[in-house]
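Checklist before submission:
- one chain only
- standard amino acids only
- sequence pasted in full

Submission:
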Amino acid sequence: MKTMTKFFVFAAAFGAGALVTVQAQTIADWTFETTQPGVVDGPASPGAGVWITNILAEVGSGTASGFHAGAATYSSPAGNGSVRSFSSALWAVGDFYQFETSTLGLNNITLSYDQVSSGTGPGTFQLAYSTDGVSFTSIGTTYTVLDNGLAPNASWNATTANPVYTFSDDLSAITAIDNAATVYFRLIDSGTEDAAGTANVGTGGTDRVDNFTVAQAVPEPASIALAGLGGLALLIIRRRRS
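Returned file contents:
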């Protein structure tokens, strides 16, 4: 079950503090429960350099896809507290998952997604965006993906979601993705070291993603009134989904 994500923002109003609640309204959300990559949507092994695509969002409107230079295998194993996810093997630097949606009339965009690798899967990724699907801009620096099941973290399973595998990004400062006919987000393999940190990525190593959510952060009316005319500032704290 999906729950509403909220943010709490500290606002300074003429020197007096106020706690502002910001509600994340979903634009597109891929859970992979209905669209099952490699099972229902797209062949499990499309071939080297061939996209797997047309993976529709379960909530909202958008399309997910994946690309590997090699002959990757795609599947839909257990998600992070759900039955399905989007998984693939045979990773090389530059391979990626892609998610595209529209933000027309919208701004203050946020992302949230669950991601994990097997011990021999890729250990580092780069988040990037584009508005034309050709030229991509990196968001922040590369990030580390956990080794699935490496103690003390529980491995992904179909019944219990583990928040340690969740990534969230406030993209409100990136105005290029506001009010855009199409925005593309990529999770790009950016390194040769595996998630266990012991060797190069193995040919059978996998990475999986789940619950990829594009949303708009909107302050609740009551909170705006509390904040008065002062500028929103200082701190954003995300309450994770349960």
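Reviewer check: Helices lie at 221-227.
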